[in-house]
Amino acid sequence: MKAIQDLYPDNLAHCYGCGKNNSQGHQLKTYVEGEETVSRFTPDMKYTAIPGSVYGGLIASLLDCHGTASAAAFACIAEKIDLNQVDLPIRCVTANLNINFKALTPQGEELVIRGKLKAIEGRKISVDMTLTAKGVVCATGEILAIRLKE
Ligand SMILES: CCCCCCCCCC(=O)SCCNC(=O)CCNC(=O)[C@H](O)C(C)(C)COP(=O)(O)OP(=O)(O)OC[C@H]1O[C@@H](n2cnc3c(N)ncnc32)[C@H](O)[C@@H]1OP(=O)(O)O
Fold it and tell me: What residue stretches are annotated with the Thioesterase domain (predicted)?
C-alpha cells in the first residue's frame, strides 16, 4: 500500500512536513498497519536541541503530519473508502496538537511514530500518538484534526 501522503493530490502535496512535492521538506510517509498508522523518520543532525538529542520542534512537526495523515486515513476507513485510490478524497488540517515530551529523543536513531484512532465526531477526528526511539517512548501526542468541507 502507498503512503497516505502519496495519495494527496499534487496541488495539496507541498506541506513542509509531508508533501511529496516539497523537495526541501521532511517528506514524512505514513502507512496503515492493522488498526494503527506508522511513520518512520531518522532526523538529520541539524535538528539538535541539547547535543545528542532531537529538537522538539521537529518532533512536533512529525506528530503534526503523522496526525493529519492518520486522521484522513481513519476517516476513509470508517467510510469504507479504498485507500489505494489515486487521490485521497478526505482532507484534514490540524486544529489542536498536544505533545508531552517524556524523554530526550536520541539523535542518530530511527524514530517510530504510531497513531491510534481515538474518536470521530462529525468533522472532528482525534488521534493518539506515540514517538519512540529504540523502543523507548520519547513523546506522546494527541491531535484534533478537522475534516475540510468539500
Ligand atoms: C489538506 C490536505 C493536505 C494536508 C497537508 C498536511 C497538513 C499538515 C498539518 C498542518 O500543519 S495543517 C496547518 C495548521 N492548521 C491550520 O492552519 C488550521 C487553521 N484553522 C482552520 O483552518 C479552521 O479553524 C478549521 C478548518 C480547523 C476549522 O474551521 P471550520 O470553519 O472548517 O470549522 P468550525 O470552526 O465550524 O469547527 C468545526 C468543529 O471543530 C471544532 N474546532 C475547530 N477548531 C478547534 C480547535 N482549535 N480546538 C477544538 N475544537 C475546534 C469546532 O468547535 C467545531 O466543533 P463542533 O462540530 O462540535 O461544533
Answer: 52-135
Q: Which ipTM score applies to this complex?
A: 0.97
What is the extent of the structural domain holding 35? 4-147
Dihedral sign, Cα of residue 17, residue 96, residue 117, residue 140: positive
Task: Report pLDDT digits (tens) over 1-11.
Answer: 899 999 999 99
Q: How many domains does the chain have?
A: 1
Q: What is the CB < 6 Å shell around ligand 1?
A: 8, 12, 15, 17-18, 64-65, 68, 91, 93-96, 122-124, 144, 146, 148
pTM above 0.95, yes or no: yes
Task: Say if residues 17 and 28 touch (Cβ distance below 8 Å).
Answer: yes
Q: What is the CATH number of the domain that holds 122?
A: 3.10.129.10
